[in-house]
Please model this.
Amino acid sequence: MKEEEASLMLIRHAIDNLPQPQKAQVESCISKIKQTLSEYEEEDAGLALMLVAAEIAAE
Model:
């Protein structure tokens, strides 16, 4: 299994184990992010998402 696949599994498992109100909020956020990303070219959306994730992680 690749490192990326293992990380994805861990994150999905963590989200699945959230209390229901928080899990619903996270799933809603994921849906809105995916919807917004779909409006852009895949490469551009991917770069933008990586930048945002890095900025949030750095905070």
